[in-house]
Amino acid sequence: MSFYKIILTVGFISLFHSAFSAAQHRSYLRITSQEFTTLPLDIVIQAVGSLFLLMWGVLNVAGNLREIQAAAELNNKTWETQKNIPSFYIFNHRLKAMSPYYVPNEGKGDLENLE
């Protein structure tokens, strides 16, 4: 495990060094009044190599991947409480017109009918 952490540290240092070299190259081009076209090949190779080194180090430091169980939270709940979601309760719907006690609005808004 410590070998991969060393690889990870070397990868971060190498990536930081390549970024610093790229910034230094850009400032050198500004000082000499040259136009920027591309980065030198050695900086590009160092950046790509350190990126792959970082990916390899992270994959080995992270350890084995485990399966995510989607139903892990539902194992402890009973069947009666799984579909009981109070935030989805709707009491003001069209079925209230089927009630024998329903009095329709006579052109007034709902806020005017509060008594």
Automatic annotation (TrEMBL):
The chain crosses the membrane at residues 37-59. The keyword Heme does not apply. It is a multi-pass membrane protein. It comes from the Eukaryota. The keyword Ion transport does not apply. It is found in: Endoplasmic reticulum membrane; Golgi apparatus membrane; Early endosome membrane. GO terms for cellular component: early endosome membrane; EMC complex; Golgi membrane; plasma membrane. Coiled coil: none annotated. Pfam families: MMgT. Its main location: endoplasmic reticulum. Keywords: Endoplasmic reticulum, Endosome, Golgi apparatus, Magnesium, Membrane, Transmembrane, Transmembrane helix, Transport. GO terms for molecular function: inorganic cation transmembrane transporter activity. Component of the ER membrane protein complex (EMC). Belongs to the membrane magnesium transporter (TC 1.A.67) family. Part of the endoplasmic reticulum membrane protein complex (EMC) that enables the energy-independent insertion into endoplasmic reticulum membranes of newly synthesized membrane proteins. May be involved in Mg(2+) transport. This is Membrane magnesium transporter. The lineage of its organism: Eukaryota, Metazoa, Ecdysozoa, Arthropoda, Hexapoda.
